């Protein structure tokens, strides 16, 4: 697979209003995995990294072999764009994959979402909360992280922080029946 060609094909379909749903083979996934940068290379290889994430966001099939690399990004990257896209692919390649197999979402993945919740960027926190909400009851492991999210006073009227606040309250209300406050 030529990553640049696949990426450009996806962008072309998206710009045309389409929804690219590409099907990758095991060897395609292996190739993407081999190109996945190590934490110290995230910034140096950001352009290629974003192409890999874009391709993974638009696949039909699951790739659970990306579990550990996804966790690495969530735990080590401070780059807003990389973290948001990584959280996006985790919805398909981790959450949906494990749920379809009837397996519990790995605790290590749930814990890695906590790093996104510690961000100062409202979009990163929003994506972290959205993924956490989709993780089901396992997400309660981060109950204290969610509860301790503080919206800066002067930013409470900002639309992005309002979304974070709404998601926080929604998730906490979902967990009420699951245990004591």
Keywords for this entry:
mainly alpha; about 180 residues
Q: What is the succession of H and E elements?
A: HHHHHHHHH
Oligomer status: single chain
Basic shape = globular
Task: Provide the helix percentage.
Answer: 55-70%
Largest sheet: none
Structural class by secondary-structure content: mainly alpha
Into which percentage range does the β-strand content fall? under 5%
In angstroms, what separates the terminal alpha carbons? 51 Å
H/I helix tally: 9
Radius of gyration: 17 Å
Number of strands: 0
Q: Can you tell me the residue ranges where pLDDT is under 50 for at least 5 consecutive residues? A: none
The pLDDT mean sits at 89
What does this protein look like?
The chain is mainly α. Helices cover 62% and strands 0% of the residues. Helix 3 runs parallel beside helix 5 and helix 4 runs parallel beside helix 6. The longest helix is centred in the middle third of the chain and has 21 residues. The model has no long low-confidence stretch (mean pLDDT 89).
In short:
The chain has nine helices and no strands.
Helix and strand topology:
Blueprint: H1 3-15, H2 26-35, H3 46-57, H4 67-76, H5 80-100, H6 107-117, H7 122-134, H8 143-147, H9 159-175
Helix pairs in contact: 1-3, 3-5, 4-5, 4-6, 5-7, 6-7, 7-9
């Amino acid at each position: 697979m030529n990553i640049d060609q696949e990426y450009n094909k996806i962008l072309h379909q998206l710009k045309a209003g389409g929804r690219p749903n590409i099907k990758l083979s095991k060897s395609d996934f292996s190739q993407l995995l081999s190109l996945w940068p190590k934490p110290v290379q995230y910034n140096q290889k950001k352009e290629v990294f974003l192409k890999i994430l874009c391709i993974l966001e638009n696949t039909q099939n699951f790739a659970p072999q990306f579990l550990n690399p996804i966790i690495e990004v969530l735990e080590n990257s401070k780059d807003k764009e990389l973290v948001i896209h990584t959280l996006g692919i985790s919805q398909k390649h981790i959450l949906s994959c494990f749920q379809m197999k009837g397996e519990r979402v790995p605790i290590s993945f749930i814990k890695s979402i906590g790093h996104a919740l510690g961000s100062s960027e409202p979009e990163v926190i929003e994506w972290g909360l959205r993924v956490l909400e989709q993780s089901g009851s396992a997400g309660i492991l981060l109950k204290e992280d969610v509860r301790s999210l503080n919206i800066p006073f002067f930013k409470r009227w900002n639309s992005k922080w309002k979304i974070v606040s709404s998601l926080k309250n929604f998730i906490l209300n979902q967990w009420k029946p699951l245990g004591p406050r």
